[in-house]
Structure formats: C-alpha cells, structure tokens
Amino acid sequence: MKDQQSTLRETMKRQGLTRDAFAEHLGVSRRALDSWLLPATSGEFRRMPGVVAKLVGGMPAGTEPRAAGELRLRFTRKGKPHLLSVDQFDRDTVEELLQVAEAMEPIARRRKVTRVLEGAVLANLFFEPSTRTRVSFGAAFCRLGGSVCDTTGFTFSSMVKGESIADTSRVVSGYVDAIVVRHPDKGSVAEFARHTHLPVINGGDGTGEHPTQALLDLYTIRREFERLGKTIDGATVAMVGDLRHGRTVHSLIRLLSLFKRINFRLVAPRSLEMPPELVEAAKAAGHKVVQVATLAEGLRDVDVLYATRIQKERMSGEALEAYPADFRIDRRVLGSLCRPDTVVMHPLPRDGTPGANDLSTDLDADPRLAIFRQTDNGIPVRMAIFAVLLGVEHLVARDLRDAPWIAPARLGPGDAPFHRLA
Amino acid sequence: MKDQQSTLRETMKRQGLTRDAFAEHLGVSRRALDSWLLPATSGEFRRMPGVVAKLVGGMPAGTEPRAAGELRLRFTRKGKPHLLSVDQFDRDTVEELLQVAEAMEPIARRRKVTRVLEGAVLANLFFEPSTRTRVSFGAAFCRLGGSVCDTTGFTFSSMVKGESIADTSRVVSGYVDAIVVRHPDKGSVAEFARHTHLPVINGGDGTGEHPTQALLDLYTIRREFERLGKTIDGATVAMVGDLRHGRTVHSLIRLLSLFKRINFRLVAPRSLEMPPELVEAAKAAGHKVVQVATLAEGLRDVDVLYATRIQKERMSGEALEAYPADFRIDRRVLGSLCRPDTVVMHPLPRDGTPGANDLSTDLDADPRLAIFRQTDNGIPVRMAIFAVLLGVEHLVARDLRDAPWIAPARLGPGDAPFHRLA
Amino acid sequence: MKDQQSTLRETMKRQGLTRDAFAEHLGVSRRALDSWLLPATSGEFRRMPGVVAKLVGGMPAGTEPRAAGELRLRFTRKGKPHLLSVDQFDRDTVEELLQVAEAMEPIARRRKVTRVLEGAVLANLFFEPSTRTRVSFGAAFCRLGGSVCDTTGFTFSSMVKGESIADTSRVVSGYVDAIVVRHPDKGSVAEFARHTHLPVINGGDGTGEHPTQALLDLYTIRREFERLGKTIDGATVAMVGDLRHGRTVHSLIRLLSLFKRINFRLVAPRSLEMPPELVEAAKAAGHKVVQVATLAEGLRDVDVLYATRIQKERMSGEALEAYPADFRIDRRVLGSLCRPDTVVMHPLPRDGTPGANDLSTDLDADPRLAIFRQTDNGIPVRMAIFAVLLGVEHLVARDLRDAPWIAPARLGPGDAPFHRLA
Q1: Which portions of chain B are predicted below pLDDT 70?
Q2: What backbone phi and psi angles, to 5 degrees, belong to B73?
Q3: Does the active-site annotation cover A227?
C-alpha cells in the first residue's frame, strides 16, 4: 500500500497544484498539509485525518496532468477563482485566456458540441436588467454543457427582506457551481465574491468594471488585426464619445496598456473626458495619449475606432444638452477620415432612433463595421472564462463532436462570409 | 485525391441541397459556386478559396442523404428557415410537418428520450407575456435535448435604450441556434426575421399571426378525426366567438382551406365577424362558408366546434357590452345542437370565472371536449417545427432511448385513457 | 408466446407495483385489470385492449425490480405522486426519504454527476417571488440531469385572463414531467394538484405548508447530530421568534413529533405563540412542550436552537411594535445560555440590517451556526424528493461519474472543512 506522503505528492502533481493551492483545495491550512508530507520519522509528522484521506482518494484520477502554473491560478487571487477586474491580468495571462477562447470557436460557431460541464449549474444573478449580457453568459455556459438558473428581476426577493450580500452569496454558493453577478452598485460584486470560494464573474457593477466586455473587445481587435496582418503593439486606437462614464472604455484602456507603444486618441466632448488617473496610468505604461474634442482631430488614420453610446441613464439633463451633435459616426465621417482597414467597434446597444448621436446604421453594409463580429465574440470569450475558472479548459478538445443540426454560414444578411469562417 | 467538382457535387447530394441552397449555406454567390463546378478546362472555371474548402470538408459526413426536396427548403423562403405565417404551407408540406409531429409523440408522451439537439440553444424572446406559450416552446426544445434562454419581461432592456429590432435580431443570432419571438406589434416578428439567417419562429405578433397555434389546431383535428374514422376533406367546422380579433381562427381558416370541400360555419355576434378578405379567400378556394349570428343556427351537426375566448384586452367597453350572453357553450348547448362525435376545441385560456361568456367547465368530463388534448399537442408540433427548421428531423428516430422515469398514463383526472395512448 | 396473464403479472412484479397502482399507471379501472388477470376459462375473463397491450409491452424492461412497498407509493395518496404536506409522512417513510438524500450528497457536493433525469422537464411555477427557493428547486432538478422552465413573475399571464387553477394545472401537465408550485394562498397548491397526475411539490402556500423546508431542516438536525453523536429521540429543541405565522416551524414541529420524547421549548412573544392545535398535537404524541416568552427561560441546554425571522410582511404595524427587542440572538446570548454543541438553525433569509431583531451576524464564525449547512442541504433533499416522486431513486447510483470540474473544498470563507466533507 502506498504511504500518505506519496499519495499526496502524486495527487498534487496529477492536479498540477502547488502546496498552497492544494491546501486551499482541501480546505486545510498549509501548515497541516506540510506536516502530513514530512517523513514519518519526523517529530512534526502527522497522519492526515480520515476525512481528508477520503477526499484525496476521491479526486478524479483520469484528469490530465496540469501545468504547474495553471492559468486559473495565475490570474486569480488567493486561490479564489474570481474574475472581478481587468487589473487581474498581465500580458501573458490575457493572451493565454484569448487562446483558450480561440479553441472555443468551433463550438461558438455551432460546428462542434462539447458537454464538458454537463451537470454543472450557473447562477446568472442580474440585480439590474441587461438582457443581452445575461443571455450571452447563459448561452456560453450552455454551450459548455452546463445548465443555467436565472434571476432576471430588478430585485432578489430575499434581499428585499433585508438579507445581506454576504448571506445571499453564501446561500447561492450552496446551490450552483459558478456565479455571474451584475449589480447597479460599484464594488458590490467584489463584496459578493468575498463571501464565497466559488467562481464569481463580474457581469458589470455600475460605474465600476465590466471585465468580460473588455476581454471580448480585446479579442475582437486581435482577430480583426490577424485578418488584416496587423499587431496590437504599435496600433493607433481611437475611443470616442462619453469617455467619462463608459466603464467599457475604462476597462479597455487598461487592458490595451498591457501591450506596447499604443497611440491612444481619446475623443470626447468637454466634461465627458476620460478620468485623468486612467490617462496618467496609460502614459506611465509608456503609451502615447492624445486627448481631443472633435472627430476631425481624432480619427485620422486610426487602426481602431471604438465608439461608445452616450450613457443617458447616467447623465443629467444639462450634460445631455452639452453633448454635441457632431459626434455622430456615419458613412461620411468614415469616408473622409478613416482608412480602408480601420476596424469600427461599439459595445452596443447603439441608439437606432433616427438622428441619434451614435454610430449610424448607414454603415451596416461596410465590412469595416465589426460590431456584430464583436458581439458574437462574447460567446467564445465567456466560454473560455468559465472553462478556465472551473479548470476544464484542457478537457474541451477531447470532448468535441460534430453538431448534427444545420447552422447558417452567415448570421446576418450583411455579414461577409469570412465572418463565420476566417 | 478527389477533385473539387466531385467533392462539391457529393456534398450537395449528401446534404440534399440544390445549388441555390448550397451557395446560401456556404455564404457565397450562386455564380461563384457555378464557376467552381465547371470543368477545370473551362475558361470560367475557378478554384474555390481555401476557407470554403475547409467548410465543405467540415460538413458532417455521417448525416443521412436527404431527399432533394427537403421539407425545410420547401416551406421556407429564400433559404431562410423561418416560420412566420401559415401562408408558407401548401397541403403537402403541412401534412409532412404533421407526420414529423406524429413521430415526436413517444417523446412528447415521456416514453422515449432524444438528445439530438444537445448543445443547441434557443432564445425564447417574449416581448409580451404569454407564460403557457413560452413554456410550451421551451419544453419542446428541451425535449429535443437543447437548452433554453428566456426573456420574460415586458421589455428587452437594450431596446429600452433605443436599440432597433434589426440590431437586437443580429446580436441574439450570435448567441443561439434558434429564436422564438412573441411581440405585441403585427409585422415585428417578420422584421426581426429579416435580419438573421437563423431559424425564427413567430410566437404571435399582435393581431397578426400565430402559426404554431394553427398548426397544433390542425394536428388536433387530424388526430381526433383519425380516432373517429373521419377525414378533414368534406368536414363541417364551426368557428365561434370573436372572429374579428382572434388571430387563431384567422390562421386556422387559411390552413384548413388547403384541404377540400370544407363547410365553414362562422358564428359571431355582429361587429365581431370574420374579416371579409378571409371569408372571400376560403370561398375562392372552393369551400362553403356560412356566416350566422347565433349558436342555434351554426352548431347543428358540426364535426368540429372551435370556440374562442372574447379577446377582452383587444376590445373597447362598448364592443364588450354588445357581446351577447348566449355565446356561452355548455352542456345544454352541446346536448341540444351537437353530435356524439363533435370535437370541441378552444385555443385557451378560457375564462373560468362563474358565468363567463366562454366555454363552460360543466363540459370537463365530456369526452368530446378536446381542449387539453389540443394543448398537449403543442409539444409534438413545436418539436417538429424545431427539428425541421434545424434539419434534424431524420435523426430523431435513431437517437431514441427509453425514458427511465415513471410517467402517468393519464395527466388529468378527467382524461380518458385513450388520450395518452391512442 | 406468453399469455396475457403472465405478461401482466411479470410486468407488475418487475415494476414492483400493486394491482391498484398498476391499474392507475395504465389508466384503467382496477376491475378491468382484474378481469384480464382471470383464467381464460373464467366467464369474467376479458382480453385486454390492443392499446393497453402496446403500453404494457413498451414498459422499460431494463429497470430494476422495485420493492413492493416502493417509497413513492407509501407516502403519496391515491397513486398520485404529490408532496403537499408533512402530514404525508410517518417515521419510516421520512427516514427512508432522508437516506435517499444522503445518497445524493456526492452529487450535491459536485464530486459526482448523474444524468438520470436527462430529457425530463420541470415547471417551476412561482406565483409569489422567492428567488432562493426557486433556484434551489431548479438546481436540484438540473443536478439530476433534467431541464427547468421557470415562471418568475408575480402573475401567470393566462390566469390574469381569468383562467382557473384547474385549467392551468392541466395545461402545464401536458408540457412537463414535474411541477413545483409556490403560491401566496393557503390551499391553492393542493387545488393545483387535484387536477393532475403529475408529480406536484408544494413550494410554500401562504400561511399553509412548506414541506421541503421542514424536510431539509430535519435532515440538517439528523446530520449535525450524527457528527455530534446524538440522536433525535430525546432531544431538546427550542423554536424561537414568531411562532404564530412561521409555517416553517409549524411543519417542523409536526415532523419532529414523528420521533420519540422530544422536549420542545417554544419561545415567542405574547400574541406570536405557536397555534394551540399544534401544541396539543405534539403533546398528544407523547412529547413535552414548554411555552415561554423570553430567551433566558427557553434556551438553556438545548440541543437545537431554531430561530425564525419576524415575518414582517404578515404582521400589522401594532404587532410589529409589540415584538420585543430582546429576541435578538447573538454571541452574548449563545455564550450565556447555550452549550458548546448546540446546533443553531434558521430558515433564512435573516435580516442583516444593523440592530435587526434576528439572528446576529456576529455568530458567523461560530461553528455552532449551522444555517449555511442547512441551506446547502436543500439540494440533496430536493433531489431526493424529485427522484422518489419520479421513481428513479434506485437508478442514480448506477448512473454516477466523476465531475470533471474543480469544486472548492469550502464554499464560504467561514466554513469549517468538515462542512463539505463529513
């Protein structure tokens, strides 16, 4: 029979876990684990309790050896598999995550099916309505084989009765395997995450963060550039519109700052400029930042034009009036200022009402308009996040089969065929 | 190695696709496809791009040869798998669709399980509440093995922010594999469908259409008649109640008109008559149409009595008052006017409050009352629609296994045993 | 070829069904079944109809022989698989049900996956909001492999149009395989169940019952006592707070009364006492019941302290004011009155606002606080209820495989490791 020390060592190796991560995983202190690994002759040596032995014995033997620096452990904190902020990433980890997303493409495009998360349940907790984000997360989890429990109301009924975020978090953790939280208040998703060891993903917390949006934006730039033969290092990226309230651009400027020599063009009407601390951080990271107030000054020869909707629900009437009409981006603007290979992006929704001061629909047939490729990219990126946080990204490739149903080559009538195929 | 022309021809044959449908499926023009199929010696011959070759190579080889006139291609338009209106059907296609529904019965009755759509996701978009229709579509998709993302609110949050139906349609298409849309405005489901190549099913658009309800009504008549040894050709069908606003009866009269020599009895109070263009269309198709204003005139010796609820939410107070009390269909009416084999139907919900001017609950034990068999039939019919639009109807029979759980022989206490068994 | 009588007898034996249950299952009268089982020479002998023969022939042959007194048949009534009230149980059946829940633990703790209910659909009908209860039922059904259709609104849209509970029940029964109903009105879940043969589970009906909560409470006491080396027989159980309106404690006192020699301490402010008929019933069953009005009198040396939230939404302003501040249970109370092994429970949610007259958060790190173990236990208990009502509890053990994803050893930061492991 194998001795305790060998059993523990082999299990750690098989799971690719450090001693800290293994102790965390077992729910014991690092010190206790160390004592079980000492030679039996040592005075400090301890036998592991029966209950721990049972847990170790029950760990799946068939799983692959994981790399010691498993992605999940490298961008999360204190062994807790949370995605709360883009600040968790460095360039290596963000690029590895996007590679996992690439591997999800055949599933996201309905050519392949995986069931790797069969039996797992996601709680999709939306304390603020956002139908498309909710459906994107839900569909991504389903495409990995899991099931989804939604809460779609404005309120979580037990919180109405005075329940704390802490209690809600701990209770829901007993029901499911991963939790997406969207909340109107900045910081409340982090508060939710503090009270659980389950994977928690920030689905947007008020004026705070929306990290999965920034990751799918970066993924989109990467894929568009790949097609165009460009690299992110050295690119010129214009961000346009309400840069003050738009958490999307706040997260994106920080993610792009992980790359090299970006030329940022920040185009915003007075009073809606990018917060100074974000501008300073980008400069400090070695990037060039130009702040201007008109499209004419900002859009010439950019590689990426990232337009944002005016966040009407976050502005006062006065600020709304100050938003000048010439921030509308249409065919004329693109024709006179941009290049044939400029990538036009937008976090959506855009205001489609006639004359709206937003990205115009007269661009819908223009192949530079990447907004729907961008929103499509939410599926593989969110699949990758779930797979990595739940530690199954290495199992997906072995679990693929052909999708038996007929999927269209193009989704929208205006889509170029390369969209689904490239 | 096989040449390009053979590869393309064999794939088309295997998939049962015409050149037009195959080009659509690949996302290329018909002209491009033609040029790839020419002899290599022709001056017009072109090599297909690598990306297309990859797509063709990736088409599931294991699927069955399909009939050249595949059902999906025969009742949909321009290669787009949409079910928007009963006008899409002719007698052949509607009968074939109902045969597919018959094949779904062992699953709908919980004797068998299929997982053919495992990995597929349905967006169940209800811009207007209709719990039962939503659950019926959702359950049908689940019974094929798929997963469902619901939106149940009155509003789609991004549309509140000014997003167009076009954008919503295209964005949701990036997330899922099929879309059911219910919307309060006539024509808006067609508008939604215009912007996607994914399967879209009209779940009711205001005063417009509700094609799946009409199909399940027709399926019910077919099954009841089969049991009674009758045929739809030559049948006498009474439609009763508010025939002006009831989209259900509008769709049903058009579907039944695909058959031969129907005797329609349209029984409606003044001002709530069937729209004249529908009456004229039925007559033009060779059917007999009698319009009367009382039950006594309309119900004698009918094969089908199709009662409808007064659509209170679509009527003004004055019209409501004009609705005469003697449109209540109860045991007395049935006993004095109808035959022992008259099939009594209703689209439900019926008004169950005492004295309501609707189909009475005193009929609940009467075997002629087919209303619950009718609503049960929503599952196999909606399963058939999903299976056909996603091109998997031929795979279901090969994917069946026994349901391991215990299903009751009868669902309701008043159900005759033949209900679940016939 | 086998004769009709042998076929029927063998099928009954294989399914472990009595004649009554088998007749119910076939949807025929007991008398008809008897006539088919008579010797062919008897004058009363009848051939079974072809349609019945088909059904019998189609019964899964591979299923295990069931015990004649199958659990499902022993605590349900008239062959209808409903869980409406704790009164359905005796000590044997409740203990067997909790043993099934024990067998679900590896799945509830995400070590194992089962797909035994794959293809089955649950309708989770919440006519009153209760997010956590809804998610708990939904997640439990998903963990058995099934799919869930939720209705989360305050209203069921067709009921708004005047539909009766009877019609809603019968219609939904045509769509799904099991139904959970939560309703604000006492008795309405029983009314719903009257109109269907499908499994119906009472998810709480106003001031009526909430049997699954009581079952998970009992399961929690059993598991905590097992760890502590105690038995339920002879235990001292304090119930504290609003005992008049709390349906949870009403159900729990009845369930505990199935055991022996319980010492009940009912601690409630005047006007919020336990209803006298429940007190009398417990005494009549041989238990000791002490009713007091202060914590000091009630909590000394109890084995279980079951605290309840003040049901503000069910009280008038006057009664609210009369609720004395010294019903707050905190570290000081526990330290001065309780034992080191007292199990502290609460049905949750608790009021977490500062100074709330409820279970205090200053106890969160105290291992005696079992409230999150208690809510976690909702999953295995509800899984057991579904499995038993659908007759698949014996199939789960044969359908287990390892969960491939990483589940944390502890859910909350304050959880002791034994929580997930014991």
Answers
A1: 1, 15-16, 51, 54, 58-69, 153-161, 310-325, 416-422
A2: -80, -20
A3: no
What is the Cα–Cα distance from B125 to B132, expressed in whole angstroms? 13
- Min Cα distance B346 → chain C (Å) is 12
Same domain, A216 and A273: yes
Averaged pLDDT for residues A300-325: 73
Query: What is the chain A residue with the closest CA to B173?
Result: A411
Catalytic option among B72, B82, B210, B309: B210
Contacts of residue A3, Cβ cutoff 8 Å, sequence gap at least 6: A40
pLDDT at C69 over 70: no
Residues A358 and A306 in one domain: yes
Q: Looking at CA atoms only, how far is residue C298 from chain A in angstroms?
A: 26
Is there a domain that residue B282 lies in?
yes
Is A68 a domain residue? no
Q: Annotate B208-250 with DSSP letters as a single string.
A: S--HHHHHHHHHHHHHHHHHHT--STT-EEEEES-TTT-HHHH
Chains that touch B (3 or more CB pairs under 8 A): A, C
* Residue A174 in domain: yes
pLDDT of residue A167 exceeding 60: yes
CB pairs < 8 Å spanning A and C: 161
Contacts of residue B97, defined as CB under 8 A and 6 or more positions apart, other chains included, come to: B71, B75, B89, B215, B384, B385, B388
Tell me if A209 sits within 8 A of A82, measured CB to CB: no
The C-alpha of C374 sits at a distance from chain A's nearest C-alpha, in angstroms, of 10
Using one digit for the tens of pLDDT, what is the confidence trace for C173-194? 999 999 999 998 999 999 999 9
Helix-then-strand count for chain A, H and E: 19, 12
Q: B313: which residues sit within 8 A by CB, 6+ positions away?
A: C161
> Touching check for A375 and chain B: CB below 8 Å?
yes
Q: Dump pLDDT digits (tens) for C252-309.
A: 999 999 999 999 999 998 888 999 999 999 999 999 999 999 999 999 999 999 999 8
What pLDDT, on the 0 to 100 scale, is given for residue B165?
Answer: 92
Helices (DSSP H) in A76-210: which residue ranges?
A: 91-108, 131-143, 157-160, 165-173, 188-194
Q: What is the pLDDT of residue A323?
A: 58
- Name the amino acid, one letter, at B180: V
pLDDT, position C62? 40
Tell me the per-residue pLDDT of C131-150, one tens digit each, with 9 for 90 and over.
899 999 999 999 999 999 98
Task: Give the separation between CA C390 and CA C118, rounded to whole angstroms.
Answer: 12
Cβ distance C349 to A158 less than 8 Å, yes or no, reads yes
Asked if the Cβ–Cβ distance from A26 to C417 is below 8 Å, we say yes
Closest-CA distance of chain C to residue B362, Å: 13
Average pLDDT of every residue of chain A? 88
Contact B378 C157 (CB under 8 A): no
Pairing label, strands A200-205, A178-183: parallel
The β-bridge relationship of strands A263-267 and A288-292 is: parallel
- The whole-angstrom separation of Cα B415 and Cα C71 is 26
In chain C, what residues touch A63 (CB-CB under 8 Å)? 404
Q: In this predicted structure, what is the pLDDT of residue B42?
A: 87
The DSSP call for residue A362 is G
Any CB–CB contact under 8 A between C150 and chain B?
A: yes
Is residue B114 annotated as part of the catalytic site, yes or no? no
Domain with residue C252: its CATH number is 3.40.50.1370
Same domain? A286 vs A344:
yes
Instruction: Tell me which of C132, C186, C227, C283 is the catalytic residue.
Output: C132
Do C116 and C190 lie in one domain? The reply is yes
> Predicted ipTM?
0.85
Does one domain contain both A119 and A248?
no
Cα(B239)–Cα(B264) distance, integer angstroms: 8
Same domain, B118 and B234: no
C58–A contact, CB cutoff 8 A = no
Residue C412: predicted pLDDT? 86
C224: containing domain: 212-375
Q: In the prediction, which pLDDT does C421 show?
A: 37
